[in-house]
Design goal:
Distance between the termini of chain B: 24 Å
Strand order of the largest sheet of chain A: 4-5-6-3-7-8
Oligomer: heterodimer
Order of helices and strands of chain B: HHHHHHHHHH
CATH class of the largest domain in chain A: Alpha Beta
Number of domains of chain A: 2
Radius of gyration of chain A: 21 Å
Strand content of chain B: under 5%
CATH architecture of the largest domain in chain A: 3-Layer(aba) Sandwich
CATH topology of the largest domain in chain A: Rossmann fold
Helix content of chain A: 25-40%
Number of helices of chain B: 10
Number of strands of chain A: 18
Chain lengths: 303, 234
């Protein structure tokens, strides 16, 4: 099996396929129902390695023993010592897997996918509650897998997570597979305002600008995010961007406007994949377009 | 079959076996029994074949059969074989590697038990052949059950009858003392009794009966393997 037919996933007529292409990685955002369906389709396929956020492991083996076993089983040339060093597992190498943290177990999954002799890898929500360190290491594993000609398809529920993996992502919904555009054109600001209007059930509420964390556009809706809550807004993102530009807001991505006051840090995952980390308890990671990487830094310094 | 893979599984499972208290203590079972029986007769006269084969039955059912059954059940329960399976051949490698572990562990346990009991009788070619057939029988049953169950807890449902009927066979004499009882006449055909008979004059008939048991166990394991493989493809 080298491809997944979209029609089988969405249950409608569709000519598209999700293809495993050697040396390439495709990142696709989709609803959880589709993810479950694809996982079910692939589970027993012997030509696709299924990487989930939590891989089952042999709890009585130590990290080093498990790696040696996987390498030997898959006949891998890679040296276990090098892997342990590259993936920062030195402190854990003599610990039994039953006593390792979730972070280590997740990392072992990345390494298993990389070592596996299977050429096609399907990663399901690989960054689910991943630490910053694991996100970096997943990128490292991705690069290594691309170099060895593996074909990867990464599926995830969260758009932010998808953008952490790649600047070019696709979205799968009832209409099929569609690339998500990331570039946009900017216009001049002209209106002054203090609050924004949003809908909450049957009420219309007014939100102070400084409370807003970020505004996103998702499936044609504009959503305003304040500490874990989302409110539907009227208008388009372009229009809101125009209104808010002079109030310390910045459109860092085609689908996102962030409050510069609430930015904690910027992380670059790879050459052209960046995230803005928000200063909230979830440390939400908002995608940052590669074209805006320099501009936002200027703004954060001088604004 | 891929020797590298078989060895990878062998090394991994040897570590797991020795670190799993439930499996590791099974090795002690025949040894403790051997120790007790060797003291019973005052240590002077040689132990009867029946007691020696009771130890063999315990070792084969509690280590060989239960060991591989439990190890496979644990893999099924935790879904750890996913990521390793690439073809039906992978499953054969896994089974071969695990079989090596339990065979080794059973051999170690039996040798120590025999040394403790100071087993004196002669091992003819027929009796050694019988022992190998018996080992294959228990191994096949263990693998077949291991392929079909989905959790360690379910194995005990299979393991208890297997242990009582095939492992502790000579114990039936204490439960049903009347040797003409139809249960006793039926149990005379159980594999372990054939091994005891192999030390007598007549060897052809017991060997044939043992062979029949082993063939049946092979059919069982082939059925279980086919079933598992067709389930995997769904």
């Amino acid at each position: 099996m080298n491809e997944i037919r979209v029609s089988e996933v969405i249950g409608k007529e569709n000519e598209q396929t999700i293809a495993f292409e050697p040396g390439e990685s495709a990142v696709i955002q989709m609803p959880v129902g589709y993810i479950n369906r694809i996982t079910g389709m692939v589970k027993n396929s012997q030509s696709i390695f299924l990487l989930e956020s939590s891989m089952p492991s042999y709890n009585r083996l130590t990290v080093r023993e498990q790696l040696r076993f996987i390498a030997k089983w898959h006949g891998s040339e890679l040296k276990v010592e090098n892997i342990i060093r590259q993936y920062e597992l030195e402190p854990w190498q003599k610990t039994q897997l039953s006593k390792c943290t979730e972070e280590v177990i997740q990392r072992m999954g990345y390494i298993h996918a990389m070592i596996s002799s299977q050429k096609n890898i399907l990663a399901v929500d690989p960054l689910h509650s991943a630490t910053v360190n694991n996100i970096h290491l997943f990128h490292k594993a991705l690069q290594q897998m691309k170099r060895t000609g593996k074909a990867m398809v990464i599926i995830t529920q969260s758009t932010e997570e998808a953008f952490v993996l790649s600047p070019d992502i696709c979205k799968l919904n009832e209409q099929g597979l569609k690339p998500v555009a990331t570039d946009d054109t900017s216009e001049e600001p002209n209106v002054k305002l203090k609050r924004l209007k949003a809908k909450y059930q049957d009420k219309t509420i007014f939100i102070d600008l400084e409370d807003i964390e970020y505004i996103e556009s998702n499936e044609g809706k504009v959503l305003l995010n304040i500490s874990r809550e989302k409110f539907v807004m009227e208008g388009t993102l372009a229009q809101i961007d125009e209104d808010l530009r002079s109030y310390g807001f910045y459109r860092c991505h085609r689908s996102y406007i962030i409050n510069l006051e609430k930015v904690k840090e910027i992380i670059s995952w790879s050459k052209n994949t960046y995230s803005v980390v928000m200063d909230n308890p979830e440390k939400t990671k908002i995608p940052l377009s590669r074209t805006k990487y320099n501009e936002i830094q200027e703004l954060l310094l001088h604004h | 079959m891929n020797t590298g893979r078989i060895m990878a599984i062998f090394e991994k499972d040897l570590k797991e076996f020795t670190r799993n208290a439930m499996l590791f203590t099974t090795i002690l079972l025949p040894i403790i029994l051997a120790f007790m029986y060797s003291r019973m007769g005052g240590g002077e006269e040689a132990l009867p074949a029946m007691l020696v084969y009771l130890i063999v039955g315990v070792a084969f059912s509690a280590i060989l059969c239960s060991g591989i059954m439990t190890m496979m059940a644990e893999e099924n329960e935790k879904n750890t074989l996913r990521g390793l399976m690439q073809s039906p051949a992978s499953m054969l490698d896994i089974l071969a590697g695990k079989s090596l572990v339990v065979v080794l562990m059973t051999a170690v346990s039996l040798i120590i038990s025999f040394l403790i009991m100071d087993v004196a009788f002669e091992w003819s070619i027929a009796s050694i052949g019988g022992l190998i057939l018996l080992a294959l029988f228990f191994l096949n049953v263990g693998i077949a059950v291991g392929l079909t169950v989905d959790s360690v807890a379910t194995t005990s449902v299979y393991l208890l009858p297997i242990m009582f009927i095939f492992g502790f066979t000579p114990m039936i004499e204490t439960v049903v003392p009347d040797s003409d009882h139809f249960i006793r006449r039926l149990t005379d055909y159980l594999p372990l009794y054939q091994n005891i008979s192999l030390h007598g004059e007549e060897t052809a008939v017991p060997l044939l009966i043992l062979l029949a048991w082993t063939i049946v166990s092979f059919l069982y394991v082939m059925w279980a393997f086919r079933k598992r493989m067709s389930d995997e493809e769904k």
